[in-house]
Amino acid sequence: MSGPILSVRKLAVTFAQGGGPDIPAVEGASFDVGAGETVAIVGESSSGKSVTAMALLGLLPAGAGTVVSGQALFRRDGENAVDLLALPDRAMRAIRGRDISMVFQDPMTSLNPVLTIGEQIAEVLMTHDGLTRRQAQAMAIEMLARVGLRDPGQIVAHYPGQLSGGMRQRVMIAIALACRPRLLIADEPTTALDVTVQAQILALLRGLQAEMGMAIIFITHNIGVVAQVADRIVVMYSGQVVENAPVRDALDSPLMPYSRVLFRTVPTYDAVLARRQRLPTIPGHVPDPRHRPQGCTFHPRCAHFRPGVCDGFRPSLESARSGHEVRCVRWEEIARG
Amino acid sequence: MADPTAPLLDVRNLTKIYPRRKGLFGKGEAFVALDGISFTVGRGEVLGIVGESGSGKSTAGRIAMDILTRSFGQVLFDGVDPLTMDRVQRRGFRRRAQMIFQDPYASLNPRMTVEQLLRTPLALHGLTGTPAEDRRKLVAALDLVGLPATLLNRYPHEFSGGQRQRINIARALMLDPALVVADEAVSALDVSVQAQVVNLFMDLREQLGIAIVFIAHDLPVVGIISDRIAVMYRGRIVELGETVAMFTRPRHPYTAMLLNAAPAPDSSAASLLAVQPVAEDAGMAGGCAFRPRCTFAMPACAVEKPPVRTLQGGHMTACLRDDLVIDGPLAGQSCC
Amino acid sequence: MKIRTASTGMVMVVVLAFACVVLPLLLPFDPLEIDLHHRFLPPLSGSHVLGTDEIGRDTLVRLLVGARTSLLIGLSAMALSTLTGCLTGGLTGFYGGWTRRVLMRIVDSVLCFPTIFLLLTLASFGQPGALTIVGIVSLVAWMEVSRVVDGQVRALRGREFVVAVEAMGASAAHMLLRELLPNITGAIIVVSTLNVARAILMEAYVSYLGNGIQPPQPSLGAMLNDAQEYLRPDPWLAILPGLVIAVAVIGLNFIGDGLRVAVDPRQGRRA
């Protein structure tokens, strides 16, 4: 594989709050996304996973005390890499929707209720690819067929309100993929959907990815979904990347104590068999971003906590084995058991 | 007091129809949210109800709690229907049957402190004692759900989702209920918090003997907590049976599809393909509602609504095909 | 920003109210005392700080007493209309059904009329006086409150925290008074504040047209009316009561607008 199409380095996002202390939503996140690869960013609320995506797309509310720093090098075909975080608005708009596009959790709020489906897909194509209205309409119908919608010729004339949740998410994917982006950022795209519909959408995304070769950043809290779509997992906890590894490696032998417990808290069918046995849990709760603990931010909840070792300084993300990074001072001891 | 061996909650042929009017004078077709469902919940038993959006699972829970009117059918709580209860019986019902809602942010009055929230049920039922007694009750309830008594003077917005759901549960426990209907009570929570709350429900059942109707869309979660599970599809219960039996050998193709679609960390990407990519819209009159999505459909499935068949061990299914052998995710793992 | 607006309004209203209550006691003039030797004195002439009117009455003391009457009428009308509005709006919002449909349609249609004509029609039937004005103004103002309360109650009625206590056996009264009302007090305060301002304006209209406070009792509206004849030679007789009305109304509107933002967290964040 050639170099990564996206290299995020030391991405930090801070929200200033009127009066209160600043909120460091993301603290120095670094990860790569290879061409055609699916990277799942996993985390619980206030882990910074969604803010990371918004920052990459330049969609965080400008001004109002939001400070974004770091670097996100994005490599387009045969071109030099551009830093998404340093790009002027105009250039960013040209990239958004064409080279990088996105799918959000709630398709209803991201679709314009007063425009037909066809108009919305065609608009993207006309802006970015310079197609004529007729070409764009024809292309829109083709895209709707690609995302598995029956009667695409009729659906182009529908309004978003006339479609079911699953159909709307297919339309969102059609719009996102209309310009054949190199990178798709999907933020909880199936969270609002029923499980059977979710399964269909995930299968669809995988199929289209194989066909069109785009990379996907898949943001989710659902580890089961991750197991099915991702090549690589980036686990985030309280604004930091705490583990980054190939999917099977991460799920089968996670190194960071947080991921180790997190993956086991997810109910599995095996757990159903162990009647009335309690699920493993993580004690305490996610720290308030304004008052994160000293040292490793996970140490107050960690079963492997060592005073003086874990609560002194923030551990850095170190390479454990090839392609597997972990942010824990004690990972070697813990892995040895 | 009713017969102690009889079920605590007995729902019979419950039907909910929403008349749908089109335009000013037009008569539209009615929307059948519940189509004659029946189930029982024993004392101290956990019954899971699963289904996708629009399956009617929440409607069933709300009608059972008598906060939503029904079109037909019976709800018997301790042998008496809330509709025919006198004042005293009704008070008892409101005390012994409690509900917990999905959204931990919307279900607590934002203007009340935890103390006021927990005192409300006592006040409503005239159960307030001396301030010291009340306080002891509040602290005990908070303790049961794993929250410290120091939080009594805080307001809901100061808590995380998981903590709020614990407060909701503590409030329900103030009245010492026999039945708790939990409507998607863990769906809005983070994974690790969800595990904590699921464990809490299991504790409550074991320590206090509370019966729970656990309504959710996440099959593994429901499976862990429930003794029996009812699977709903478009207003009907299509399968009802013991959890392990259902996960080992589902009798209804829809149950099989749900089990297959629910992503689990130990499942592989291959399982995605087994879900039928089918038309999502299927307003079918007559016949089995699941027919258009079913791999096993026969011509007969279009003719009549499949009647409920009772199999061994009280397992019930509403599928015409009695020849199906479908392996669930636990096939080959459970004994028997 | 909005907080400052509300504070400015608050200062204006408090200063005015304080002046109305205290100053008349300190001034050496009676608002009804006629002094034909000193008619049409301009402001700042000797002991008559704001001058005198066409029959030599002290303008300042008449303004203050008139403003006091206006504020009192405004507050009483507000109290009456808030009470009626909360009661009707609370019940219709909570129970819905045909009573709600009928009542709200009536409210809508009445609110369609220009208020001033409605007011004058009503005023021509009653015995002129402060109480009548309170009654008439409340008769118009409660509908606004009712609509707001109705809307808020309807929006919150189906919220889970209300359904939750209903499932626990709460009575309608408990749900309305303990659960719903505390969550809409903000909105009620906002409408009520704005209603005080409206009531003061309405009192001025009615008195100006002669159906309100009767002479010789001072009233801001009546003073404006009297000043009409002498607008050319002695404009201050009209300007001064106008200013007082403006201060009161603007001050109250500032408070209302400021509160509106403070009460609606979504707007507050944007501001």
Write a structural description.
Chain C: Belongs to the binding-protein-dependent transport system permease family. The complex is a heterotrimer of chains A (337), B (336) and C (271). Chain A is an alpha/beta fold and 337 residues long. In chain A, the strands form two sheets. In chain A, strands 6-7-8-3-9-10-12-11 form an eight-stranded mixed beta sheet, with helices on both faces. A four-stranded antiparallel beta sheet of chain A has the order 2-1-4-5, with helices on one face. In chain B, helix 3 packs parallel to helix 5 and helix 4 packs across helix 5. About 4% of the residues of chain B have low confidence. In chain B, strands 7-8-9-5-10-11-13-12 form an eight-stranded mixed beta sheet, with helices on both faces. Chain B has a three-stranded antiparallel beta sheet with strand order 4-1-6, covered by helices on one side. The longest helix of chain B has 18 residues. Chain C is an all-alpha fold and 271 residues long. Chain C has a single domain, classed as MetI-like fold, CATH 1.10.3720.10. The longest helix of chain C has 37 residues. Chain C is elongated and about 75 Å long. Chain C starts with a helix and ends with a helix. The C terminus of chain C is likely disordered. Chains in contact: A-B, B-C. Chains A and B meet through helix 7, helix 8, helix 9, helix 11 and helix 12 of A and helix 5, helix 6, helix 7, helix 8 and helix 9 of B.
Secondary-structure map:
The complex is a heterotrimer of chains A (337), B (336) and C (271).
Chain A: E1 6-15, E2 23-33, E3 38-42, H1 49-56, E4 66-74, E5 82-83, H2 89-95, E6 100-103, H3 107-110, H4 117-129, H5 133-146, H6 152-155, H7 165-177, E7 183-187, H8 195-212, E8 215-220, H9 223-229, E9 232-237, E10 240-246, H10 247-252, H11 257-265, H12 269-273, E11 318-321, E12 324-326, H13 331-336
Helix pairs in contact in A: 4-5, 5-7, 7-8
Chain B: E1 9-18, E2 21-22, E3 26-27, E4 31-41, E5 46-50, H1 57-64, E6 72-77, H2 87-96, E7 97-100, H3 114-124, H4 131-144, H5 161-173, E8 179-183, H6 191-208, E9 211-216, H7 219-225, E10 228-233, E11 236-242, H8 243-248, H9 253-261, E12 309-310, E13 316-317
Helix pairs in contact in B: 3-5, 4-5
Chain C: H1 2-26, H2 59-95, H3 97-112, H4 115-125, H5 130-157, H6 160-167, H7 172-208, H8 220-227, H9 236-263, H10 265-270
